Amino acid sequence: MHIVVCMKQVPDPESPAGSFAINPETMRVEPRGIPPVMSLFDENALEAALKMKDADKDGTKVTVLSAGKRVPDAVMLKSLAAGADALAKIEGPDLDNMALNARGTAHVLAKAIEKIGDADLILAGRQAADSNAGQVGAEIAAALDLPLVTMARKVTTENGSVLVERVLADGYEIVKAPTPCVVVASNEVGELRYPAMAERRKAKKKPVSSTGPGDVGADRIPEAAAGLKGLEYPAAKERQCVIIPGDDPARAAKTLMEKLKDAGLF
Amino acid sequence: MASPILVLAESSGEKVLPLSLEALAMGRKAAKESGASLAVLVCGKGVSAAANELLGYGADKVLAVDNDLLADLHPDLLCAAVSQVCESIKPGAVFMAETLTALDLAPRLAARLKTGCASDCVDVSVSNDSGGFVFTKPVYSGNVMARFALLGKPVVATFRARAAEAPETGEASGQVENLDVSLDPSLARYEVVETVSDDDTGGPKLESADRIVSGGRGMGGPEGFTVLAELAKALGGAVGASRPPCDLGWISPVHQVGITGAIVAPSLYIATGISGSTQHVAGMAEAKVIVAINNNEKANIFKIADFGIVGDWENIIPALTKAAAEIAG
Ligand SMILES: Cc1cc2nc3c(=O)[nH]c(=O)nc-3n(C[C@H](O)[C@H](O)[C@H](O)COP(=O)(O)OP(=O)(O)OC[C@H]3O[C@@H](n4cnc5c(N)ncnc54)[C@H](O)[C@@H]3O)c2cc1C
Ligand SMILES: Nc1ncnc2c1ncn2[C@@H]1O[C@H](COP(=O)(O)O)[C@@H](O)[C@H]1O
């Protein structure tokens, strides 16, 4: 089974709030002094693929696919070290500032997937940490006319089909989809495994390709269906905190309960 | 005449979801500002009770699609049904609450209709220049708020919990209009094999709980959540979690609080072993009183809390459970 994992690099969303500077003139967010990382849900998608590879080492190939103006190997190396077999990058100036253009991004990725040719399963993340859109997975499925299964917490294979556990409000459902199909992974898949040092060294020898969107046949990228009208910082949520020392737990607990009572809670 | 706004309501059993009523309130606001009419649609099998309930919220039209094939709301069939309704009533916008159903349906529908989509919106307004809708939503995982205009018809938007207040119900007026759609089982491109319930709490549901005791990565493992559950029980509240414990399988994901979990606003929120990331805080910052328990006095969570205890939860939580049992019990 050939699994393609769509992996986006994003400015680390867990950086301090001040790291995301708004430039009102260009209407862009300029990350300040924070490194790009692999988007968190995409790491979950990769972990889902690697779990499938664990179950069938020789029969499973995992290709990581990433599109962007520039996709530094240093960021993506972690995916190869964690166990992916190859990295396919689609890079070029046309792919600048595409976070708002889910359909355009999906078009490029879909063309690249067609070019790869033998993908049985396409995995994407629930949402990218910059766009927070949650659309590209569905758009890829639409572009390739493939079945779409979302909110996956576990993916396995069975006789050429995939079985997916989908998160529901009060549990999950197990669904069976034919291949090829698109599966969107959620965080319940589990965190991406931490690669050992030896794997990191080996990763540097794995195949990495870089092509432009035109090379995969994506020469007319659809226009964005969203236009930016403004960017703002979220309202500050700070409160004045009364600190209670915790060295005497029983006393701290009693003090807190009294304060909560004074606040009208009991 | 501006094209109507179509709000898609979901029901749980016979009742309309409270979150859907909030989305309806957003629809009402957008309709008022833009001069559009407001229609609300409920789809499923046996939805007449929910549709009748919707008559009390002042929409211009209440539409229902009642179809046996929608019994389990298979995403492919639901999307087909909603797009057929869109073809017939030609809305300018489709609004829904950001639920698990909408998380799937909104982008699926927009991809099918080739229109613009915005998820997890906190507000909508009408643009002065174009007259189109402008949606406000978090980007960069909540570090920035963006305002978007969307292209196409209908545009599709989902709204975050508590972005609007649910409207009061009034006199029921008008009649439910039942719409026919043509669905075929073969539209379902995958098959549901089994449904499993793993709601392990038994206690109050997160979204409706008035007191929530949450744990984060600092709980160190599933055992920590057993200890938290005792405090939650003593307080008559629910157990919540940050994302890592859900990712790591320490607790079921139904407990997750934050931008990709539940958005809650209880009277009391106790955050234990939680550092206070933007993504978590966005899900609980509206709580009336916030208590932080963390062994790192510099943790960000103290900045957004009213009361903080600096210490190891293993000592603090059992003491709190005892004190809570005395006071609350
Ligand atoms: C797109 C996106 C969506 C996200 N959505 C969500 C979401 O919905 N909800 C969410 O929570 N996160 C979400 N996250 C993840 C978020 O960025 C943080 O990674 C996460 O909230 C951190 O969880 P934490 O505070 O439990 O862990 P950490 O940040 O690791 O903090 C653990 C804390 O525990 C404390 N601690 C350790 N041991 C003890 C002890 N013995 N006693 C007391 N305190 C102790 C530490 O001092 C520390 O402050 C999202 C991220 C992205 C990118
Ligand atoms: N430029 C990209 N390169 C690779 N994958 C992407 C890219 N943009 C989006 N994706 C995938 O699509 C998912 C959803 O993205 P979004 O719709 O932007 O929230 C991400 O989690 C990725 O798996």
Tell me the span between the first and last alpha carbons of chain B.
59 Å
The global form of chain B is globular
Radius of gyration of chain A, in Å, reads 22 Å
Unreliable sequence segments of chain A: none
Helix content of chain B: 25-40%
Q: Which molecules other than protein and nucleic acid are bound?
A: flavin-adenine dinucleotide, adenosine monophosphate
Largest sheet of chain B: 7 strands, parallel
Low-confidence stretches of chain B: none
Largest sheet of chain A: 9 strands, mixed
**Helical run tally of chain B:** 8
Topology order of chain B in helix (H) and strand (E) letters? EEEHEHEHEHEEEEEEEEHEHEHEEH
Instruction: Please give the most extensive interface between any two protein chains, plus how many residues each contributes.
Output: A-B, 91 and 95 residues
Number of strands of chain B: 18
What oligomeric state do the depicted chains represent?
A: heterodimer
Major β-sheet strand ordering of chain B = 7-11-6-1-4-5-12
Explained architecture:
The complex is a heterodimer of chains A (266) and B (329). Chain A has 266 residues and is an alpha/beta fold. Helix content of chain A is 27%, strand content 32%. Chain A contains six helices and 15 strands. Chain A has helices at 40-55, 73-82, 102-116, 136-144, 197-203, 249-262; strands at residues 2-6, 9-11, 20-23, 28-31, 36-38, 61-68, 86-91, 121-125, 148-158, 161-168, 171-178, 181-185, 208-211, 226-232, 242-245. In chain A, the strands form three sheets. A nine-stranded mixed beta sheet of chain A has the order 11-10-9-12-8-1-6-7-13, sandwiched between helices. A two-stranded antiparallel ribbon of chain A has the order 2-5. The radius of gyration of chain A is 22 Å and the shape is globular. Chain A starts with a strand and ends with a helix. The model of chain A has no long low-confidence stretch (mean pLDDT 95). The model of chain B has no long low-confidence stretch (mean pLDDT 94). A seven-stranded parallel beta sheet of chain B has the order 7-11-6-1-4-5-12, sandwiched between helices. Chain B contains eight helices and 18 strands. Chain B starts with a strand and ends with a helix. By secondary structure, chain B is an alpha/beta fold. The interface between A and B is large, with 91 and 95 residues. β14 of chain A pairs antiparallel with β10 of chain B. Bound molecules: flavin-adenine dinucleotide and adenosine monophosphate (AMP). The site of adenosine monophosphate has 24 residues of chain A, from α1, β6, α3, β8 and α4.
